[in-house]
């Protein structure tokens, strides 16, 4: 009763990183609330999965294991989650802001009349006082996310409805094994009690998954460009530098909006959050919308004509100069020193 539940999404039989990130964060939130951290997994051939989730702090692991539950389908998965949530009545339920989470979360929250905050970038436990009624609430989930195109940060609370539900973007939370593993108590769900014939009406005859061609999130080195690159043609310099360094190319929102790069490369509050070992920011001013998505990088190098650019405040090394002059020199000297 009133615990914190994380929906753990599977991809090719493995728990997705975003779910492990949420368990890491969920362990912190559950400790603050003095409640249990629980995980729920729906799929097939899930034997032993509770051991992996226990390493990330899960006290209880609810498992619905059936051939008909893999791959993901909206109706059976949402029916099982609704049934579990009505039975266990968690105070908080979290899932990744993935295609599956964005499909599943709203359907479950609508069925339970609980509300949902989508695409959160931060979660905190705090208190609230309603100025109109004077009522005070403790231990609420602060669901923090960018709003109005990333121009402001909104903190959303749900004082009265349960569970407090949120989807969270990939990469914004750290993924760390718990200092003290959870008990990982396995609880097998009798999920068929919550399903009806219409839930299983849709059959998957054939499934084709395209491999992700651009993986900015998982790159150890990122060469990222902003509007200061000047043109799509100038972005070719970044690709050349990235090839030399074995890096991936990223972009700011301004560069993407200008058509210099694909949206899949966008780093920031309205793009992906990254934590590479090295982040080279080229022609990026460093507005909060962008830096919020990369300021956890181990090392940051900025290249900008403006020595007062905001990006320089968080950069480990700042190079003042024209990217079209600096980058070719970086490529030249890196090649020389690599021989």
Offer a concise description of the structure.
26% of the residues lie in helices and 27% in strands. It is of the alpha/beta class.
What report would you give on this structure?
With 339 residues, the chain is an alpha/beta fold. 26% of the residues lie in helices and 27% in strands. The chain is built from 8 helices and 17 strands. The chain has helices at residues 17-33, 49-55, 74-88, 99-112, 235-245, 253-257, 288-291, 323-337; strands at 4-8, 10-11, 14-15, 37-43, 60-65, 92-96, 116-120, 122-129, 136-147, 152-156, 164-168, 185-188, 221-225, 248-251, 278-282, 299-304, 317-320. A 7-stranded parallel β-sheet has the order 7-11-6-1-4-5-12, sandwiched between helices. A 5-stranded parallel β-sheet has the order 14-13-15-16-17. Helix 5 links the parallel strand 13 and strand 14 (248-251). Helix 3 (74-88) packs across helix 4 (99-112) and helix 5 (235-245) packs parallel to helix 8. The chain starts with a strand and ends with a helix. The mean pLDDT is 91.
Structural class: alpha/beta
Count the beta strands.
Answer: 17
The fraction of residues assigned to DSSP E strands is: 25-35%
Percent of residues in helices: 25-40%
Q: What Rg is obtained from the alpha carbons, in whole angstroms?
A: 22 Å
Largest sheet: 7 strands, parallel
Uncertain residue ranges: none
Estimate the mean pLDDT confidence.
Answer: 91
Shape: globular
H/E series, N to C? EEEHEHEHEHEEEEEEEHEHEHEEH
């Amino acid at each position: 009763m009133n615990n914190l539940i994380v929906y753990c999404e599977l991809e090719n039989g493995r728990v997705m990183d975003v779910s492990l990130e949420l368990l890491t964060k969920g362990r912190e939130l559950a400790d603050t609330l003095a409640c249990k951290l629980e995980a729920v997994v729906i799929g097939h051939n899930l034997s032993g999965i509770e051991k992996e989730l226990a390493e990330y702090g899960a006290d209880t692991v609810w498992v619905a294991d059936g051939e008909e539950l893999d791959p993901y389908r909206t109706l059976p998965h949402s029916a099982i989650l609704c049934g579990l949530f009505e039975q266990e009545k968690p105070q908080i339920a979290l899932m990744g802001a993935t295609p599956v989470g964005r499909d599943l979360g709203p359907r479950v929250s609508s069925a339970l009349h609980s509300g949902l905050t989508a695409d959160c970038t931060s979660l905190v436990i705090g208190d609230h006082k309603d100025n109109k009624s004077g009522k005070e609430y403790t231990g609420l989930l602060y669901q923090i996310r960018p709003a109005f195109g990333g121009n402001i940060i909104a903190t959303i609370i749900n004082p009265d409805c349960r569970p407090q539900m949120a989807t969270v973007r990939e990469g914004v939370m750290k993924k760390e094994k718990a200092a003290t593993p959870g008990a990982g108590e396995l609880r097998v769900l009798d999920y068929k009690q919550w399903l009806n014939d219409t839930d299983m009406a849709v059959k998957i005859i054939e499934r084709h998954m395209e491999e992700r061609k651009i993986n900015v999130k998982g790159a150890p080195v990122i060469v990222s460009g902003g509007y200061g690159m000047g043109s799509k043609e100038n972005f070719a310099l970044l690709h050349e530098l990235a090839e030399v360094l074995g890096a991936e190319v990223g972009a700011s929102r301004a560069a993407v909006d200008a058509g210099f790069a694909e949206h899949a490369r966008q780093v920031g509050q309205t793009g992906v959050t990254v934590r590479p070992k090295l982040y080279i920011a080229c022609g990026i001013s460093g507005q909060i919308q962008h830096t919020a998505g990369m300021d956890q990088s181990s090392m940051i190098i900025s290249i900008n004509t403006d020595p007062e650019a905001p990006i320089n405040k968080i950069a480990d090394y700042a190079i003042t100069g024209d990217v079209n002059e600096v980058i070719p020199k970086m490529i030249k000297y890196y090649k020389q020193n690599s021989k």
